[in-house]
């Protein structure tokens, strides 16, 4: 019985140490610069010339995403993203997992 209790304690300690490491950047405040585009065409529409296609895809059911540093990020604020399709933007918010941003603000980039 003592062995079982010891094993349970060891497993609890390992879990306490490993789970935060697995979570990684979850909830981390980020500011990403990139282009609002649609998830279907991605990087292809991540520019001013792709704006009309990205809007069309969004109206057809595609989610709007941010293309930043070669990666697509899902955005929680689809209405705000739609206002900035085809613009280079700064997106501020909290990272959820590896590829989703809980958006706090989207604004045109000054860079």
What does this structure look like?
The structure is a single chain. By secondary structure, the protein is an alpha+beta fold. It has one domain. Helices cover 32% and strands 34% of the residues. It has 3 helices and 5 strands; from the N terminus they run H-E-H-E-E-H-E-E. A 5-stranded mixed barrel has the order 1-2-3-5-4. It is globular. The termini are far apart. About 12% of the residues have low confidence.
Task: Summarize the entry for a quick read.
The chain is of the alpha+beta class. It has one domain. The protein has 3 helices and 5 strands; from the N terminus they run H-E-H-E-E-H-E-E.
Helix-strand blueprint:
Elements: H1 2-23, E1 29-38, H2 51-59, E2 64-68, E3 71-75, H3 78-82, E4 88-96, E5 100-108
Parallel strand pairs: 3-5
Antiparallel strand pairs: 1-2, 1-4, 2-3, 4-5
């Amino acid at each position: 019985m003592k062995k079982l209790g010891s094993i349970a304690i060891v497993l609890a300690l390992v879990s306490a140490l490993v789970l935060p490491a697995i979570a990684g950047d979850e909830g981390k405040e980020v500011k990403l610069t990139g282009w609002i585009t649609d998830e279907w065409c991605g990087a292809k529409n991540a520019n001013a010339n792709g704006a009309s296609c990205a809007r069309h895809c969004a109206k057809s059911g595609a989610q709007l995403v941010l293309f930043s540093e070669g990666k697509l990020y899902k955005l929680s604020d689809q209405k705000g993203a739609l206002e900035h399709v085809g613009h280079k933007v700064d997106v501020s918010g909290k990272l959820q997992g590896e590829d989703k941003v809980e958006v706090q603000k989207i604004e045109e980039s000054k860079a």
